[in-house]
Each structure stands twice: as structure tokens, then as C-alpha cells.
Design a protein that fits this description.
The chain has helices at 2-19, 115-123; strands at residues 21-36, 45-50, 57-67, 70-79, 95-102, 105-113, 152-160, 167-174, 188-197, 200-211, 214-226, 231-243, 249-262, 266-277, 282-294, 299-311, 334-344. The protein has 345 residues and is mainly β. The protein has a 16-stranded antiparallel barrel. It is globular. The relative contact order is 0.16.
Length: 345
């Protein structure tokens, strides 16, 4: 009898401990067929690619309830390639953070998306992936340094406030970890303030990345309004390179997009982007149209068509991951198509 009572007590204690913590395996597999009619040599490219509608990924996340409203957690997430199975190996470069949260907000340590790029994610109706995506986040000056597009950063410490009746903010600092006297190349500082309440969303963000011989400053403002029958989004961004002893370079980028539900199972998306590349005196315009048809809550079919019009010698190209991710010849226009299936788990 005593042994039975002891066993029941152990099981109860184990159940209580398990109830206080959890670990979740999650991911997305997005694979499809992509085509672009012009590459850098003027030839067409086509084949099986990945991440046409959402970035394919595999991850682990977990939380532990520490009591008193305090929670600890972690997030490990890496990109996967449905077409090739990650020939170069799997890593957690999408996110690798440990977290502590409570009534004060949340603190994170590790590699994750920057507060500036999160603004683009909120207002790009194509979710910053596939041939329809907004491409304002690029290493416009061709610096070649790690994470020179400021999408993600290593060694970052970030703090996010709680939600105050729709108002929220985030501030992040990424250490350069260079040797003393070696300069600050790779150091990043950024933040955003936003309002998300009901159909209204608005965000203002700023970031600064230290480069060799200069800095990259970026500022952007985005907003959206959900009318029910359709959601309208807009974004304005300026990326400025401030060089020591050389003229500054500006790249002003804009988007306006709309998405609308169709028949309870689908979504139509359209977006126009304008890239005013003052830094190299060129311009480009991008028009993207897409449709997503949900077969279930986790599985969807999608199709996207996009057109890039390059003016004044611009060489911007559409991005079809694992099929083509380069530019085009000077002033050449490009058309792309993607058809695929996305499954989340």
C-alpha cells in the first residue's frame, strides 16, 4: 500500500513538473517550381526550388514557468531546403535565442531578426519571401560583411516591452566582438515602436550598422488597415550609407500592397514596390500578384507572378530561392513565376 502511494506521489510530482514546461517541434516545408525569363547572362532559369510562399524551416521552442509570472524559454530555428535537403548542412541561423519574460516584457540573447527587419515582415504581403517579396533589405552598397543586409544579427541583446493597449516597442544591440583596437565593424543598434490594435497597425523603426569606413543607417515607417474585405499595407524605407571621406549613398524604397480573402479558403495578394536607388542613380519597379489556396489549416497551394522593370541601368533581379537569386543585365526587365505547395507542422 505504501509503495502504491509513493508511486502515485512520484507520478503526480512528475505531472506537475511537466505541466510547468513544454518543448515544441515545429516547421514548414515549402517546395515548388520556379521560372525567371532572364538571368545575368540573359538566359532563362527554371527548376524545383524552395520557400516560394513561406521560408522552409525546422525548429524547437520551449518554455518553463518559473512562477510569479516569470518564464524562461528558448527558440532554435534553421532553414531547410525541400528541393535538395540542405546539401551544405543544417544550422540554426534563422534564430538561436534564450529568453526571460514576465510582466516587465521579454529579454532575449542570441541570433535573431533585427527590429528594423520586423517592420518589413509586418507590411510585406508576400512575407519577405518568394519572387513577390519586397527587396528593400539588401546589401545595397555591396559591403560583403556578414549580415550586411541587416535582416538578422549574431550576438544580440534585445528587450521588448509588454503590450500597452496596443502600443509596443523593441530595442536591440548586437556586439561586434572584435579585438580591442580592431574597430566596430559588424556592430548593430536598432529599435522600433508600434501600435497594433484591431484593424490598425503602424510601426516606426531605426537601425545602424557599423561598416568598414562608414555606417549603414536605415529608417522606415509602415502601416496597415484591415477593412475586413481587404487589408491595405504601405511601407517607406530609406537606407543611407555614410562613408568616411566619400559621398553618402541613399536608397529610398517604397511598397503598397493589398490582400483579400476569397471564399473562406483562399487569399489574393497584390503589391507594387518602387526602388529609387539614388546611391547609383538607377530606379526599378516591381509588380507582384499571388494567390494562396488553403487545402487545410496546415497545407496550401500557391502561385505567384512578378515583373521587375529596371530603369537607368538598374540590375535588380527577382529572387527564386534555389533556382535563381542573382541580378540581370543593366536595364533589362525580368518576369518570374512560382507554383508550389506549403505544409506546416
Amino acid at each position: 500500500m505504501k509503495k502504491s502511494l509513493i508511486a502515485l506521489a512520484v507520478l503526480a510530482a512528475s505531472g506537475a513538473a511537466m505541466a510547468q514546461s513544454s518543448v515544441t517541434l515545429f516547421g514548414i516545408v515549402d517546395t515548388g517550381i520556379s521560372y525567371v525569363n532572364k538571368d545575368a547572362a540573359g538566359d532563362s532559369r527554371y527548376g524545383v526550388g524552395t520557400s516560394g510562399n513561406a521560408t522552409s524551416r525546422l525548429g524547437l521552442r520551449g518554455t518553463e514557468d518559473l512562477g510569479g509570472g516569470l518564464k524562461a524559454g528558448f527558440w532554435l530555428e534553421g532553414e531547410i531546403f525541400g528541393d535538395s535537403g540542405n546539401a551544405s548542412g543544417f544550422n540554426f541561423r534563422r534564430e538561436s535565442t534564450v529568453r526571460l519574460s514576465g510582466n516587465f516584457g521579454e529579454v532575449r540573447l542570441g541570433r535573431e531578426t533585427t527590429p528594423t527587419f520586423r517592420t518589413s515582415l509586418k507590411y510585406d504581403v508576400f512575407g519577405a519571401t518568394g519572387i513577390g517579396q519586397f527587396m528593400g533589405y539588401a546589401d545595397w552598397a555591396g559591403t560583403g560583411i556578414a549580415d550586411g543586409n541587416t535582416i538578422r544579427k549574431d550576438n544580440m541583446l534585445s528587450y521588448s516591452t509588454p503590450n500597452f493597449n496596443g502600443f509596443n516597442a523593441n530595442i536591440s544591440y548586437a556586439f561586434d566582438e572584435n579585438a580591442s583596437g580592431a574597430g566596430k565593424t559588424g556592430r548593430y543598434f536598432g529599435g522600433n515602436v508600434g501600435y497594433d490594435n484591431g484593424p490598425i497597425s503602424a510601426t516606426l523603426a531605426y537601425g545602424k550598422l557599423n561598416l568598414v569606413g562608414g555606417d549603414r543607417d536605415e529608417i522606415e515607417i509602415g502601416a496597415s488597415y484591415n477593412f475586413g474585405v481587404a487589408k491595405l499595407t504601405g511601407l517607406a524605407q530609406q537606407v543611407k550609407y555614410k562613408w568616411d571621406g566619400a559621398p553618402n549613398q541613399k536608397f529610398n524604397n517604397y511598397l503598397i500592397g493589398v490582400s483579400a480573402p476569397v471564399g473562406g479558403v483562399g487569399e489574393v495578394k497584390a503589391q507594387y514596390a518602387y526602388y529609387d536607388q539614388k546611391g547609383n542613380d538607377t530606379k526599378a519597379q516591381q509588380l507582384s500578384l499571388g494567390y494562396v489556396h488553403n487545402l487545410s489549416k496546415r497545407t496550401a497551394l500557391y502561385g505567384t507572378v512578378a515583373y521587375m522593370k529596371n530603369n537607368n541601368g538598374s540590375t535588380l533581379g527577382l529572387q527564386a530561392k534555389q533556382v535563381y537569386a542573382g541580378g540581370v543585365q543593366s536595364g533589362v526587365n525580368q518576369t518570374g513565376v512560382q507554383l508550389g505547395i506549403r505544409h506546416a507542422f
